[in-house]
Amino acid sequence: MSSFFFKVYESTRAAALSVKAHGFRSFLTTLGIIIGVTSVIAVVSVMQGLSGSITKQFDGMGTNVLNVNSFTPKKERLQGKNAKLNYNDFLEIKYKVSGISNITPTVMAMGQNSVVQYKGESTTTQVTGTGSSYQMLYGVYPEQGRFFNVSDDKSRRRVAVLGPSILDKLEIKGDPLGQYLMIGGEWFKVIGVLEKRGKIFGFDQDNYILLPYSTTQALLGGAEEPDIMISMQVDDANQIDGVKQVITNILRRNHNLAEGQNNDFKISTAEQMLETVNNLTSTTTMVLSGVVGISLLVGGIGIMNIMLVSVTERTREIGIQKALGATRFDILMQFLIEAIFLCLLGGVIGLALGYGAGALVSSLIELPAATVPGWAIALSLGFSAGVGVIFGIIPAAKAANLDPIDALRYE
């Protein structure tokens, strides 16, 4: 072992013995680092778990899915104007745009039409009317029974596919298939129960009912045609921009939009939505990490304070070391390694506590499982070591610059 590494080893061993000898004081010294790293890791683990879960769900949709929604600028909404997509827009896109498949309209049942009853039990849920291709488009599959088909839609059959949470909310016992629910005052036969998807931020993703689109239109009734969303899959992902342009041309013509007038609809891809969500979670992670990282700097100041006290306490010891031949570099390295050792020790404890806190928070508010990425571990330990170097250098320099004669005379 070379002389340099031997000195590093000995300095590290001396730091460990010093920490062991002054356990409680060392704990208080590193408390700021522990709190800082715990906060950073807890925030990062929760946000990464959430981001991973959202990405997984978008992956199930595929990156070549297009969604078309109506869009009304805020100024026009305040004037009482509302843009709308109708069934004719859907048919125009379906029959005039090439290179697409699994196109489906989607409409939401609101108000009384979202009230569901079963044997004296009642609940309000998200009731969605859509086409049979919704299953392939969004990758939702029945755990029991079947999804509705084209025939159900054309015949306006009163059949329903349930999210699994509906079974608990309405206390449906035994086999739900073949039983009848009242939705919006009309009876519907249960033909399928979908796979469970869980909760995010306390939002239950399984609390919904899917009905055939034509059946839902009949249920909604009324003189005014509802606003719908149109979703589809682009067969060749390289043709997405071209397909979006064709759809834009069709809808602008249908809605009589003059040249220079803004679109009253928006076309978005699953990839764009995923990118938006990822940007949001990344920005939130960085901002929160930066805020809680301030506590690391506060912890560093605590380290420097204790190290300065330690230099004063060990002045005579330093004098003896210099009298026996220790150089300024040896003393500087000894105290610097002790500061880094304390910070890294606080970082490791903070990592463990941070992961535990993240897992606890995720469990309590029903978020996806906490995940700590490798970069967060490396960043936390690297930052801890950096704090040790920055705030340990002044005490170490003070110790190294002590005059051996004065140090030996120190009482």
TrEMBL record:
Keywords per UniProt: Cell membrane, Membrane, Transmembrane, Transmembrane helix
MacB-like periplasmic core domain location: 26-249
The keyword Nucleus is annotated on this UniProt entry: no
Gene Ontology MF term list: transmembrane transporter activity
Protein name, as recorded: Putative ABC transport system permease protein
Protein localization: Cell membrane
Chief subcellular location: membrane
Cellular component terms (Gene Ontology): plasma membrane
TM spans (from-to): 27-47, 286-311, 331-355, 375-394
PANTHER family named among the record's database cross-references: ABC TRANSPORTER PERMEASE YTRF, MEMBRANE COMPONENT OF TRANSPORTER-RELATED
Domain ABC3 transporter permease C-terminal: 291-404
Membrane topology field: Multi-pass membrane protein
Family: Belongs to the ABC-4 integral membrane protein family.
